[in-house]
Write a structure and sequence with these properties.
Elements lengths: L2 E6 L8 H16 L4 E6 L10 H7 L9 H6 L1 H11 L3 E7 L7 H10 L6 E6 L2 E6 L5 E8 L15 H13 L3 E8 L5 H21 L2
Parallel strand pairs: 1-2, 1-3, 3-6, 6-7
Antiparallel strand pairs: 4-5
This protein binds flavin mononucleotide (FMN).
């Protein structure tokens, strides 16, 4: 575990709990794995463009090897973001829950890194298109903060949690299936309960950092 890519998606800066928890985890990782390199990608306070028509035409161009220069330019940022994912062993995503899903900047980032021919492929099997992941040997840690309660797998609001499922599905689709989710819940309610949830999340993150190999 030498290279860590941290993707931060809260539009908040110092007031962001998901960012603060991510720093706890990253500090613990760097302490437990001296020599590990950390790269950061800002998608919450920086601009990641939405997919547009030019992007779709370029990404699904039938002969990628002879893609025209203008199309290569349309994919330039996507190529950088894909290279970042491919060039790191551990992906750390910090994300608030927004309207039961992830902030739009993080969704835009996902749309840029799920790329045919780069992170997944489609192969024909008896005339039926099959998806094939192209990313191997990586793991991801998702660090999230939620205003409400009960969005964990056994919680009463689990069915409303489209954030974890989106990230697990999209990352799994490209081949990253070793995924841990650590959450703090309840920012919008009782402060004491939220603080306790943050302390529990920090403990979990420190243990996880020690366990990473
Ligand atoms: C636009 C917006 C939408 C939100 N939607 C939800 C939601 O669906 N469920 C929830 O539990 N909290 C929701 N929240 C609360 C945030 O998840 C919570 O404040 C979280 O701690 C923010 O993360 P951050 O501190 O890293 O910015 C929402 C907050 C905002 C600003």
């Amino acid at each position: 575990m030498n290279r860590i890519l941290a993707v931060h998606s809260s539009p908040r800066g110092e007031r962001s709990h998901s960012r603060r928890l991510a720093e706890v985890f990253l500090d613990a990782c760097l302490a437990a794995h001296p020599g590990a390199e950390l790269t950061r990608r800002e998608v919450g306070r920086g601009f990641i463009p939405h997919v547009n028509e030019a992007f779709v035409a370029a990404a699904f161009y039938p002969q990628p090897a002879s893609r025209p220069l203008s199309m290569q330019a349309d994919l330039a940022l996507s190529d950088v973001l894909v290279d970042e994912v491919l060039g790191h062993e551990l992906l750390v995503i910090s994300a608030p829950m927004y309207n039961f899903s992830v902030p739009s900047g993080l969704k835009a980032w996902i749309d840029q890194i799920v790329r045919m021919g780069r992170t997944f492929d489609i192969i024909e099997d008896n005339g039926i298109a099959q998806y094939q992941p192209l990313v191997w040997g990586k793991r991801a840690v998702i660090i999230t903060s939620r205003g409400g309660h009960g969005f964990g797998p056994e919680g009463p609001n689990a069915a409303f949690n489209h954030a974890d499922t989106l990230l697990r599905t999209a990352l799994g689709f490209i081949g990253i299936e070793d995924i841990s989710v650590v959450a703090a819940e309840g920012e919008e309610s009782d402060n004491q309960a939220f603080q306790a949830s943050c302390v529990a999340a920090e403990r979990q993150l420190r243990v996880l950092a020690e366990q990473l190999r």
